[in-house]
Design a protein that fits this description.
2 copies of one chain form a homodimer. Chain A is an alpha/beta fold. Chain A has 3 domains: about 45 residues, 434 Repressor (Amino-terminal Domain); about 90 residues, Rossmann fold; about 130 residues, Rossmann fold. Chain A is built from 12 helices and 10 strands. Chain A binds a DNA duplex (16 and 16 nucleotides) through helix 2 and helix 4.
Chain lengths: ~325, ~325
DNA sequence: CTGAAAGCGCTAACAA
DNA sequence: TTGTTAGCGCTTTCAG
């Protein structure tokens, strides 16, 4: 298990190829302006290949002053499939620039973000929420040259809410409800989405949405449903699909039906949304573009270039199913 | 944005405290056997604190020959809340040993695991599935001294299946169905759980479970339900809660009821399980203990000690709700 | 009790 | 065209 297996260093390759370490370095890094005879080059490549040589990341980073590691700080909230897809997209986009993405789950008891940043020697740190000034400073001290909060909490989230409300309104609903999550960690995002809903209502000349908190418990959801129907709400925007599914359960519990008695629209399109009873209408958005956009910002930041300010096309849209 | 902000090195601290780099190192690392006068010690600490000094991880690792980074390779499967909770537990457990956990999502287009391992200079690599020999070798070459697949696919997973089947059998079901996931990435785990179910059936003298693949689509689930009822199956164990909820949808679609016509038991207790229609009986297990156990194996591996072979108490149990 | 020096593996100047 | 040297920041002998 613990076979030490001495690392293969550039010295080994040099010896095997009968050249100096420098030459190895030059060949393997394709150093510009250097002309190495094809024969030598081939010998070096072959030796490196045969020995399974890998440049030692720490040494390289130490020398270069920066690493190719980017760190994504994921908050301690339920990671939906949309987030994991986003991470993958981001990793792919960064890989195209020779950057390696690793993620850190920010838990209450784990290591602090700056610690992790220092440990892996990340050059860039990407977060889902704005970092406070102290954290930013700590991250810089820990070696990060780029600190980039995803603008996840701003208008993009509001757009989701606007889209949900717009959908209900376009289907004739005139009194809108909003189902807030009971999860405190998600609350800021929920508030943001709610603002979007409120905006759309105002714009359509409707009264503000009736916002209620809905936990993931049937009785609680049922009570919310009762209150909505009492106030003649006919359509509910839920913070996310989890909450939406709870609302559907509440409707069922009350012996009512969706969408006849109360229409429901969720957000995120989690896998079980399509097998909810009834299948859940929901809002999705493209993480692909936004990921690529952030990768570019990171690269721009690292190379000192100004990031181009073209905003990513977020492209939120409604997936129509039976619940509305 | 890109303020270079020269790093604070131990030289800076030494100068500020009026001592040598060695002394700084000795003080900050609590080097054993060295006795530093309290006064000097205090001066060093104070200077380090004031300057916000952080030892440079790369240099330290380069010198020491190993880093404090552990890398968790998460397969490209939907990260459910149970997995993310597990990651958090593992990170916490490792942090107790001064190890830093970061995770890498293995995507098709991203960087290869050995690449990531090399980039972050991980000393330990933990995976959800057994690595093939080539990968293991590549990881060793990349600097990992410990390569530890989580025994996630072995008996623990089978236990989950056994538990599910046991629950149904104890409630009088004599013909058991199994709902396999349609997600290829999850299939090995599903097969393992199925083996557990089959074992329990055999032990009870029942026929083998009727295994069908159930995707997250209502018509597909409905068809599976039809086939089960045709074969007089009365209780179904689902690979996980997502699949179980699809089965519930299929039952509903057929105009049947759970548990009267067909009982369903899931696994993992995802948030929406309790608001499924009807609320879903499911099997949960403690990730806490298993995470701690793995952290210990990693530490043991790194320090050359033999890992103690006490198996983690996995503690799977049934959460009884309305669907069985 | 403290400091000087060596060296981890790498690469960028500079010399040959 | 290739090799020699220096140094990134750290820790760890070994002298003083």
């Amino acid at each position: 298990m613990t076979r030490p297996a001495r690392r293969i260093t550039s010295t080994d390759v040099a010896r095997a190829a009968g050249v100096s370490r420098t030459t190895v370095s030059v060949v393997l890094n394709d150093a510009p302006g250097q002309s190495i005879p094809e024969e030598t080059r081939r010998r070096v490549m072959e030796a490196a290949e045969r020995l399974g040589y890998r440049p030692h990341a720490w040494a390289r980073a130490l020398r270069a002053g920066r690493s190719d590691v980017a760190l994504l700080a994921v908050p301690d909230l339920p990671i939906g499939s949309s987030i994991s897809r986003f991470i993958e997209e981001l990793a792919t986009a960064l890989a195209a620039f020779n950057l390696t993405l690793v993620t850190h789950l920010e838990g209450a008891h784990g290591r602090s973000l700056p610690d992790v940043c220092a440990s892996v020697g990340a050059s860039a740190v990407i977060g889902f929420y704005p970092f406070d000034a102290d954290t930013v400073q700590a991250l810089r001290r820990a070696g990060a040259t780029v600190v980039l909060p995803l603008p996840y909490e701003d208008s993009s989230m509001q757009q989701v809410g606007r889209m949900q409300a717009g959908h209900l309104i376009s289907r004739g609903h005139r009194r809108i409800g909003y189902a807030l999550t009971a999860d405190a960690a998600l609350r800021p995002m929920a508030d943001d989405r709610l603002r979007g809903v409120a905006g759309a209502c105002a714009q359509a000349g409707l009264e503000p949405p009736v916002a209620l908190t809905v936990g993931l418990q049937v009785p609680e959801a049922a009570q919310a449903v009762r209150r909505w129907t009492e106030q003649s709400v006919t359509g509910v925007c839920a913070f996310n699909d989890d909450t939406a599914i709870a609302v559907l359960a509440g409707i069922h519990e009350q012996g009512l039906r969706s969408p006849t008695d109360l229409a429901v629209i969720g957000a995120d399109d989690i896998p079980t949304a399509q097998v909810a009873i009834p299948p859940l209408t929901t809002v999705v958005f493209d993480l692909h573009e936004i990921a690529r956009d952030h990768a570019e910002s990171v690269v721009a930041g690292l190379s000192g270039t100004q990031p181009r300010s073209t905003p990513a096309s977020f492209n939120p849209r409604v997936i129509q199913r039976a619940s509305t």
